[in-house]
Amino acid sequence: MKTIKVILSIIFLAFLLSAAAESYAQVEQKPPATPPTPTTPLAEAVKLYKAGLYQEAIDALVQLGNKAKDRTERIKTQIYLGYTYFTIDNKEEAEQAVKNGIAARPDAEINDKTLFSEIDGFVPDFVKFFKAIKNATMGSVYIESVPSGAAVYIDNAKAGVTPLTTALAYQKYSLKFVKWGYSAKKMDLDFKKNDPGNIKLNLNEGRKHWKSFLQSALLMAGFSFLIGSI
Question: Which domain covers residue 206, as residue numbers?
Fold first, then answer.
């Protein structure tokens, strides 16, 4: 009798373990919950465009453009704004918005899906429109210094180290050259379409000025983003 009870207990325990294992397996097979996709004011403005609410999209993009804090934000809002104007056949406003975007980030390309990730791509006619404006409003500038190796800041944003070639829109800029042991120099550039696009600057060595030493020290310490404010 005791043997039968033991056998029945073992069978019952095995049944419970099997049921528990099956339940656990079902829980494990459930796919993880997908977190909600974070939204941004720019994405919301693009949604208005996709919904055909073009004037609402324009109003939202204009406000975002006025608040944009960096070059990437400015070009995205301006290009989407230009695209919206282009869609409603307002070519004049579209051209101005595209020019503003190009001026913010001359290096950006219209087919950069990482940059313009809020849409699935621009229509071919707008791509041609963008490229035509970019070719007409931008040029290449070669910048060198004597001696070479000077950090170049264009409108307080680091462009690179001399010698360098960079693409710029045809407009006015403020340039600054900084090199350890040399006096920092500033110059204004009014870049126009027919300009040769060559800049050469001689740096003065050994000038004892606190600004020069401070700028050089910031450069060496890795705080180059502070140089433009000095």
Answer: 138-229
C-alpha distances (whole Å) from 152 to each of 148, 185, 197, 220 are 11, 10, 15, 14
Threshold 0.70, pTM exceeds: no
> What is the number of structural domains in the chain?
2
Token representation of residue 22: 């099956």
Adjacent-strand bridge partners of 177: 152, 185
Tokens for 34, please give them. 């997908």
Q: What are phi and psi of 93, to 5 degrees?
A: -70, -35
Exposed/middle/buried for residue 34 (C-beta within 10 Å: 0-12, 13-18, 19+): exposed
Q: Which tens digit of pLDDT belongs to each residue from 130-164?
A: 999 988 888 889 999 999 999 999 988 888 999 99
Which of 154, 142, 125, 141 has its CA nearest to residue 193? Answer: 141
Which 8-state DSSP code applies to residue 224? G
User: 150 and 71, same structural domain?
Assistant: no
> Percent helix, strand, coil in the chain (nearest 5)?
50, 20, 30
